Amino acid sequence: MTFDDALAALRSLSGGARHAHSGQWAAAALRSRISAGDLPPGTKLLEEALGGALGVSRNTLREAFGILAAENIVTRVPNRGVFVARPSADDVREIYRVRRYLEPAALRWGGGSVPAGFDALLDDVVDRARMAREAGDVAAMAGANQDFHQGVVARAGSARFDAMMSEVLAEMRLVFHGMGDDPAFHAPYVDANAAVTALLRDGKAEDAAEEMRSYLDRAEAQLLAAIRSRES
To answer: What is the pTM of this model?
Structure first.
């Protein structure tokens, strides 16, 4: 997807009352496109183009950039502008530190906070990921993986946790972008997600939480090894 395509997607979000378009709203809109992979690492975020697409002032857009910079999703470079961030090894370690608190806890204790049948939504995401794997569609596999982990945290029934996970997944999308289009990286996690879902379906929330903790350890190690290889 080109930068112009990303602008078109942002324009579709900007309908309605322009006066309600705050810095928080603009940050959420940009975060959603970064999380979707529309704005890859290193993309320069052009103020005039983005402000026009979102229907916000320069000051509002700069407020949004400040919010995203605090989340490590964008980077300000003096005299050059604002760019979508390239996460480092330390960023990956911090991301997984947060995920180890959020995701196993949501699996272990979140079941009573969500409507009956909610976990069936995870089955649907797993099915979508399997179809993407069969088709060799790496982007769709990565997207389904993002949806799975957002769904896991949604079991906690906390709007604050959901917002926190949205930030984490936007940064994760930047990490995954560095892995390129290699299906060998993404494919094993389709079955890992299915294993967690099966444990939930069997009422084994504690086992699902432990499986997720082990899963996150493996994923972090794999990503850090890939970063070391890329930088050597």
So the answer is: 0.79
